[in-house]
Amino acid sequence: MKIAILSQEASLYSTQRLKEAGEARGHDLEVINYLRCYMNITAHKPMVMYQGKPLADLDAIIPRIAASKTFYGTAVVRQFQLMGVFSANDSQAISRSRDKLRCLQILSREGIGLPITGFAHSIQDIDGLIDIVGSTPLVIKVLEGTQGIGVMLAETQQAAKSAIEAFRGLNANILVQEFIKEAEGVDIRCFAIGDKVVASMKRQGAPGEFRSNLHRGGTAEKIKLTPEERITAVRATKAMGLRVAGVDLLRSHHGPVVMEVNSSPGLEGIEKATGVDVAGKIIEFLEKNAALGKTRDRL
Asked: Fewest CB atoms within 10 Å of the CB: 129, 201, 205, 296?
């Protein structure tokens, strides 16, 4: 197969591993900077151009779209879909997962376990918002944040009110969530492909840090999921319409709760923690599904 990896940086671990895994299985892999793609949007022959030449005869693409470049990146993915190219994740599913509020609302509709979450616009409603979520401490998240940036823990109600007022004063949209104390600074990353979880790891926050992101000094190790956790991760992936996803869970007293569904999950942490060839499993998924899926996905 001829496969394009849509990535800004060919040197990134995830990009390199996908290219290596595809070439090891006999496929032609090319890394394409999607920000340098430009499009001919026409009814009869839609095209994607790159370095002055049309990107033709592709069998599949693997989008690795940065959160800050979602708008343009998903436009490029949509254009490939118009051309009948199979995408590891379609554009609509990527957009849904990147909107944290919309993601939680979709998961809620499907009855998937979530932390109690509040959302409001006016600072006049802060007291009511905090009352909905419950007792402190509370987690406050900026909707546009990634890798733990824009996430804070408010230990008291007054601290929560001050933080919310500050964020809203900057016109930042925020979510307020209950703090799952029993998780003890640990979350679980489930890597789902299709209808299976292929690898899972637990991430422990650095000492004194409630966020477990590896980018913030957290550590990771392989973990065995419970059947309920495995089912929850697959349901969350399907609810978002994703084919490849990283689903972040917390273990709460009332079962697993989903914190986030990531459409471009990194491979380095989970491959090193588990020893699983996740990149190879993504390529294998494309082999099984690209020929069958060369139809126009939802735009």
From this structure: 296
